[in-house]
Amino acid sequence: MANWGCDVTTNCGERGPKLLIIEPFYGGSHKEHISCLIEGLIRNGIGYTLVTLSPKKWHWRARCSALMLRDKIPEISTEEALFCSSILNLPELLGLRPDLCQLRKVVYFHENQSIYPVKQVKERDVQYAYNEITTSLAADLVLFNSNFNRTSFLENINKIIRLFPDNRPKGIREQIEDKSKVLYYPMKYPVSTTDKVPQNSILHIVWPHRWEFDKGPEDFFDVILELKRLDCKFHLSVLGQVCADVPLVFHKATEELQEEIVHFGYLKSKDEYFEVLRACDVVVSTAKHEFFGVSTLEATYCGCLPLVPNNLVYPEIYPEECLYKSLNDLCRTLQKFCSEPKTVRELRRRLCLDFSKYCSKNLIPEYINVLAVNE
């Protein structure tokens, strides 16, 4: 049975808890994000109260977490600010808990729902995007994990408003834009990285993403199976979080790629995960919905050459030589790399990417500054 419990943790710091952190989906990158922030708070002697729900049933968390959390959030004592992800319906929570209105309210967007890929437009549930708009209006500061995330959200606000049958409010985008900024996701890179240069005679490809539709697994395996049809020699590791409804293509892959698969499935140990990444040559993304891409950046840091779409957030982070224009383009590049693995290693050695821009150690002081709890 799923654990729908709520956890509350308090650290009083030097002057009592100053920050109320609320995360309705406490798992994966959301959990790691909060962990990085908390480490920074503790280093600075800043107390906090952390209220979380387990990472189950995302859609229900987005719809109902405010009511679920209403009675779980402790009474405000010394807190000065509230920090939450955009999954939380903030105005709904403030209506249920008006005592929270006095806090400085900061919302963090890991993603936005206004451009979530759907097979047909009529399938899009605009309620999620609408909730993100009202949450942004209720906040004092709105943070995004990339310029792409911020821009795509702001550009789609008026599209959502135009769906209203009448009484369409004006100036909503401008109100949110004026109090929004980009603050990158804080990466915790592996402590020890070797300047490894894999000596594999066969190219090792890794796909380390969440096993869901929006990460484009069908496209990825179409390319990989085409490589096999072309008699390309390669090894394959498929990592990432396994979700409840795994797309059928993963089952097909285990049957048709038995000879190529080295690792297949989620690795609970982060150290083991990084070790696998260090043994790989190329990390591939075929995502349809990506606003930062933690796993791709982790793999790149561990020595993989990234091959990523020429859209979404990727041009913001990766140089042009890492971007592919189409799946055919991706397939041709991988085909070439399969025949010349040494080329990949030389390209990765020459790759110019400033990892420090996304490093937790460099970013957390800015988080504490914008939260205004270090005074």
UniProtKB/TrEMBL annotation:
GO terms for molecular function: tRNA-queuosine(34) beta-mannosyltransferase activity. Residues 18-187 form the tRNA-queuosine alpha-mannosyltransferase N-terminal domain. Residues 209-317 form the Glycosyl transferase family domain. It catalyses: queuosine(34) in tRNA(Asp) + GDP-alpha-D-mannose = O-4''-alpha-D-mannosylqueuosine(34) in tRNA(Asp) + GDP + H(+). The keyword Glycosyltransferase applies. SUPFAM superfamilies: UDP-Glycosyltransferase/glycogen phosphorylase (SSF53756). Keywords: Glycosyltransferase, Transferase. Gene3D superfamilies: Glycogen Phosphorylase B. It comes from the Eukaryota. It is an enzyme of class 2 (transferase). Its EC number is 2.4.1.110. Belongs to the glycosyltransferase group 1 family. Glycosyltransferase 4 subfamily. This is tRNA-queuosine alpha-mannosyltransferase. It comes from Exocentrus adspersus.
